[in-house]
Amino acid sequence: MTFEVVKPGLLTTIQDLGRPGYFHLGIPEGGAMDRAAMRIANMLVGNPEDAAGLEAVFMGPELTFNEDALVAVAGAKMPVYVDGDERSSWSSFPVKAGQTLKFGYLKTGARIYIAIAGGIDTPPALGSRSTYPIGALGGFEGRALAAGDTVPVGKATAKAKERTLDQSLLAELPKPVELRVLPGLYWHRLTDASQKQFFADEWKVAPEADRMGYRFRGGNPMEFVEREQPFGAGSDPSNIVDGCYSYGSIQIPGGSEPIVLHRDAVSGGGYFTIGAIISADMDLIGQLQPNTPVKFRQVDMASALDARHERNARLEKIRSALS
Amino acid sequence: MKTRYSYGGDEHIFVEMDEEMSLDAFFKSLAMSNAAREANIDGVREICPANASFQVRYDPDVIAPEDMMAKLKELEKKAINAEKRLETRIVEVPVFYQDPWTHECVMRFRERHQDPSGTDLDYAARINGYDSVEAFIEAHHSAPWFVSMVGFVSGLPFLYQLVERDKQIEVPKYLKPRTDTPKQTVGYGGCFSCVYSVRGAGGYQMFGITPMTIFDADQKVSYLKDFMVFFKPGDIVKWKPIDREEYDRILKGVEDGTYTPRIAEVTFDLEDFNTDMDGTNAKLMEALNDV
Fold first, then answer.
1. Which of A125, A185, A230 is facing B20, going by the closest CB pair?
2. What's the whole-model pTM score?
3. ipTM of the complex, rounded to two decimals
């Protein structure tokens, strides 16, 4: 089975749950920005949760199917059409051979996930089909989809049947958006006043927000605790001897605009980081549009773990509802 | 050296051997990350060694953060006594300094630089006290370098110069990172040289370019058939200055599969190096020249 890409949208890539194990070589884990949405899209069409599907940002692609297929769309709110007839997100529906899947304008969120029963069947690279364009790795020839591409899909399993998710099982988007932060790493480089200010300020998602990182603007510049720069770091107070970066960690080059490192993040570098977004809030970042107001909220490890357990329990409920 | 432990969110532990860079800090970080790997701790997802620090990614559903932290702290004692000796290789990497491609990029991003009126090389030579760019280039390639970290993007090596501290070159990173850097640019930031393995963003000063591919996702390059990434921590590099003609010749050789980098097996012993830098470097060069 295959489908043809009629229009690729803005940046539509093949993604699964990523390729852990190569970060020490600078190759990021990658995979879906919103992992839960990708998993649920797969559950809806009876795929294993780590099957490969599509991630589209801000704008949907236009795809024509060459054989009958079962499809599901999850994630951002965007009208879904099959040959002009509207279909529901968060449910699976059939698409017949020759029919075209299309999307309307984005309403809320930033990224949609499209799963097809059988999963996308491009060759895996280092154990994953996720596209990492910078390294020309995985996905479709290591790049985002383009018009005219013919994408292979695997054989659907016996579990492929129409399903609908009870959307009350999904987490509500917090308003205003709050991202929870566990301070650490080079947090001590900021003055007490700057530490407090970071959490007091209202930030906005900058236009430079992509799979590598989300940049934020609008808050006050950081003030650093004075020191003589250590040998090898470089002279700016935001410079450190190049080290590893944690996923979700917040670096602030020059002390002005925080960048939250995401799925396709660089593995390390020479800018200081002030801590990291907790794992439970990483999916949420992938659904933020530019200009969205955001507050960072300080939490401790116990609350980070509580939030993680809550997220796992919610996913488990969805899993049993859709099995 | 003072070791500092910190959590990076709920999934990472970051261990910094020292705030400043040194080979002692590197060897301790390597020993600790090796010990962490050998300890086979349940829940560990990835271990990433860096220049003077390392990071462990773990699954807090499998092991509690404070238990992971305690286990890593235990390993520190073991790492202190680890041998500071590596069986490794020295690789000759050809560099076309002052090439037209990085020069174009240097000029394109001038407004993000400390000194918009000159080039990265002019600036680096001046702030490091060299009379001319030529003398500075000579200093850059005269002694071997040590790969102390691989990362940033796919297979990018960070290199530390094997000379006394007072002879080491130090330059700041760009004031604002560039959005573009030619593939295989030889860069410099802090006390580290690097080779940009792929085209993309970058904040290091740009000195030249190598025709030698060091990352190939398709693994078509003859010397990357076994693995797509060429460098690993502990590798030793000797830059070899080349001109345009040789650059073109090597580039063609990489493309048609006839080019093989010059490589020799060597032992690097930190204590030997610290006692006699010139002698150790001479031995490394001898091994390379014998190939």
1. A230
2. 0.95
3. 0.96
